[in-house]
Write a structure and sequence with these properties.
The chain is α+β, with helices and mostly antiparallel strands. The chain contains twelve helices and seven strands. It has three domains: 89 residues, Acyl-CoA dehydrogenase/oxidase, N-terminal domain (Butyryl-Coa Dehydrogenase, subunit A, domain 1, Orthogonal Bundle), CATH 1.10.540; 91 residues, Butyryl-CoA Dehydrogenase, subunit A, domain 2 (Beta Barrel); 162 residues, Butyryl-CoA Dehydrogenase, subunit A, domain 3, CATH 1.20.140.10. Helix 8 packs antiparallel against helix 9.
Length: 380
């Protein structure tokens, strides 16, 4: 009898190890090898890998719970989980040869992809010649496979490269998420076999190995991983302020921080923002998963509802972390303090296109019958 994989328990089993290695990522600009190993052996890199291919095929709420727990230990680790899950989800559209290549390349391959500025692909015998560069290729320094978008005559592709195929620019010197190795990748007339290219403009045709309800959801399900990382980042700040409130005596005060009304107010507001965003996120993606399980198509408004939850979560979490930093006072300004890192990470996540402030406008466009300015929102 098969049992359901407990993703949250698996995430908790490695949280101490991830937390202990987090400083390495901050300094090195990429995740520690020990953290990658922990993610792999715990199943965190296979949450959206199909069961037919040895994965766990977790429903999106279970994924969100696990990703939040991992982010609470190390936001960079949760970010690499996002790259892996997004790639496995998009491989539902791939030719079997590519899927077989990836499965054979490692017991638990580490996958990553970026939907930023597309490169140029020119059709040639047996595939494409790809040239260009694109930023924010998270995990590119440690991934076994990395995917990126490319434009070609009459098509918009997602192409995959095995490791060491692309040149990596050492330009990831960011405010937050420093351990994600989200560098710029460069292709210089690189040949990509046709089976490693996915035409994102073609009708969705899933293979039999990607036939579960998860893979019948629209492309817009992917940002749940980013939103869940936001929640984990806020949890870091909530926990840190709670601990600080017990022992810190603010300047010119005779009592600890927890007795200060302004700190109480800001903590209470931040806690409400956390719970509201989390409930909204889980309810929205849970509803979408149920709809996909029934085999019902998604109209544009239903796809937009996903992005409404993602944008709300990312922006509310960033606002709440800022509140908590103010409650903590000068403790939050020191490098290495949990609130200081949460503040930097939350700020960077708030700018990610999946849930940036502009996505609220994209949702309005979908509801008002206008052309949507964010193509991923409308994709199946």
């Amino acid at each position: 009898m098969s049992t359901t994989f407990d993703a949250l328990a698996a995430a908790r089993s490695i949280s101490a190890e991830l937390s202990a290695n987090a400083a390495y990522g901050e300094e090195a600009g990429q995740l520690a090898p020990a953290s990658i190993d922990a993610l792999a052996r715990s199943g965190m890199l296979s949450l959206w890998r199909p069961r037919s291919l040895g994965g766990h095929e977790c429903d999106p709420v279970a994924y969100a719970l696990a990703a939040e727990e991992v982010a609470r230990a190390d936001t960079a680790a949760a970010w690499l989980m996002h790259g892996a899950s997004a790639s496995w989800f998009d491989l539902r559209l791939a030719q079997p040869e590519l899927v077989d290549e990836i499965v054979a390349s490692a017991e638990v391959p580490l996958l990553g992809e970026t939907f930023n500025k597309p490169m140029k692909a020119v059709a040639t015998d047996g595939g494409y010649r790809v040239t260009g560069s694109t930023p924010f290729a998270s995990g590119c320094k440690v991934a076994d496979w990395i995917g990126h978008t490319a434009v070609t005559d009459g098509g918009f592709l997602l192409v995959y490269h095995a490791k060491d195929t692309l040149r990596i620019e050492d330009d990831w010197n960011s405010l937050g998420l420093r351990g994600t190795s989200s560098n710029t990748i460069v292709a210089e007339d690189v040949f990509v076999p046709s089976h490693r290219a996915i035409d994102l403009t073609a009708p969705v045709a899933r293979s039999a190995r990607f036939d579960g309800p998860l893979y019948r959801a629209p492309e817009g399900l992917l940002p749940v991983a980013v939103a869940a990382t936001s929640l984990g980042t806020l949890r870091i700040a909530l926990d840190a302020v709670t601990e600080l409130a017990e022992r810190k005596t603010p300047f010119a005060s005779s009592t600890t921080l927890k007795h200060r009304a302004l700190a109480q107010l800001k903590f209470g507001r931040a806690l409400a923002q956390y719970r509201a965003a989390r409930t909204f996120l889980h309810a929205t993606v849970g509803h979408a998963f149920e709809q996909a399980g029934r085999g019902e198509p998604f109209d544009l408004r239903q796809k937009a509802d996903l992005f409404l939850a993602f944008a709300h979560t990312q922006q509310e979490c960033a606002d709440a972390v800022r509140l908590l930093a103010k409650a903590a006072g000068t403790s939050s300004i020191y490098k290495g303090h949990p609130i200081e890192r949460a503040l930097r990470d939350a700020e960077v996540i708030s700018h990610h296109a999946f849930g940036a402030e502009g996505r609220f406008a994209s949702v309005a466009q979908a509801y008002w019958g206008l052309d949507v300015d964010f193509p991923l929102l409308a994709m199946d």
